Amino acid sequence: MSRGRPNGGKNKCWSKEKKEQVVLYHLNNNIGMDKCAKHFGISRGQVFKWVTKYREFGVEGLENKKKPGNPLAKYSSKKKLTKEEQLEYENMKLRIENELLKKRYLMKGDGTIVKFMK
After folding, report:
1. Is residue 104 left, alpha or beta, with left meaning phi > 0 and alpha meaning psi from -120 to 50?
2. Predicted confidence (pLDDT) per residue in 93-111, tens digit
3. How remote is the C-alpha of 89 from its chain's centroid?
4. Cα(15)–Cα(29) distance, rounded to whole angstroms?
5. Scanning 18, 33, 35, 117, which has the fewest C-beta atoms within 10 Å of its C-beta?
6. Mean pLDDT, to the nearest integer, of 24-30?
7. Are 23 and 46 a contacting pair, CB within 8 Å?
8. List of residues 6+ apart from 51 with CB closer than 8 A
9. pLDDT of 2 strictly over 60
């Protein structure tokens, strides 16, 4: 039996409403998580996570959270940066380098990162 998504498959993004439908189907019909998961074609673990979040935070717990991306991406895609954007970009690079140093990493001039010990 094949488990998980096929190679190259995309993660499915479920809306808050669809997640709520799955959770309420499980809770209102007294159906086990296995049967509920099979009914909607998702994993039992996913149903468990959504039910847990629903019980703890209500419907708002099912909201899709925006994940933080690469903070430098918005600067690297522009060809011409304003003076203010150049300063923000440099500041962000220095903050990242500082955090890496705190974690005992060293950044070379070409941007590669090397782990070093005390």
Report:
1. left
2. 888 888 877 777 766 666 6
3. 24
4. 21
5. 117
6. 93
7. no
8. 23, 26, 27, 33
9. no
